Amino acid sequence: MTNNYILARLKKTFKLSNQKIVELFASANYGIKEEKVVNFLRHNQNSKFEKCSDIQLASFLNGFINENRGKQDGVQPAPEKKLNNNIIFRKLKIALNLKSEEVLEFLSSVNFSIGKSELSSFFRKEGTRQYRECQDQVLRNFLNGMEIKYLGREN
To answer: Where are the domains of the chain?
Structure first.
């Protein structure tokens, strides 16, 4: 999955305006113009399409956490230079203040089943024995489950 796809899905699921997305970037100390956000959301065949980098998506997700959980005191966390599905999944779980049971409910709402231990392996530190790489299929189903929960869309 691309960063642009994830950004577009979050925009749709949470009914975020382009201006609100700019504000979320700003909340994470990343200045961006609305025109650039529009270009991120264009179809990749469009000549004005721009690829959303890992740092940009990480900044947006940090702003999303700030919006939903409140800004931390002191220095804001630096955006990751390299994102993977595990980091994206973890940031969304934090932003929405989800417990493992709620994440599993999101997944089961789209008929995707994993165990609690498998889920927790996605949130472990990379390099530990219990760590497992989160595949696109898992993250996509989580995004689909979020859409059902927050938009009331049926599967």
So the answer is: 3-69, 85-151
CB 27 within 8 A of CB 59: no
**77 phi and psi, to 5 degrees?**
-65, 140
Residue 110, C-beta contacts closer than 8 angstroms, at least 6 positions apart: 141, 144, 145, 148, 155
Look up tokens 């305006």; give the residue: 17
Three-state DSSP state, 148: helix
Which of 116, 43, 125, 44 has its CA nearest to residue 84? 125
The model's pLDDT over 16-58, given as tens digits with 9 standing for 90+, comes to: 999 999 999 999 999 999 999 999 999 999 999 999 999 999 9
Please give the backbone phi and psi of residue 61, each rounded to the nearest 5 degrees, phi first: -65, -35
